[in-house]
Amino acid sequence: MSTVGYDYNLTRTLDAPVDKVWSAWTIADIYGTWASAEDVVLDVRPGGAWSSVMVIPGGTRVPLSGGYTEVVENKRLVMSMNVPGGDEPVLMAVDLAAQGERTQISLSQTFDTAENRDQAEQGSNFLLDGLTAYLATA
User: Is residue 1 part of a domain?
Assistant: First the structure.
């Protein structure tokens, strides 16, 4: 990720083992459940692609796609995302750290503008809220 720009880093501790959190990010049916996404396709490997249609509150459907640039099982995913209206894909890093039966997760991204960063950070908080709720019942 670029070191110039506007970044965010969100960190939470989840009440689930790291392998369960990893599966939530890498198995299409599970991802769709907690991420409010439809038509999810995940090819989780370096060079693999992903796509989904995010259903945001209010029912708006947003098609998203991208690829995987780094995959380290149960530790790290770095994904590119083709942002509507953007010139280049944006990278998002998902870092996992096992803490016994719990997992620390960190999401981070860097953007060219504060507005884009703020929108992405809000979306990532929404994702983490969905993941937390899913793990509490799974």
Answer: no
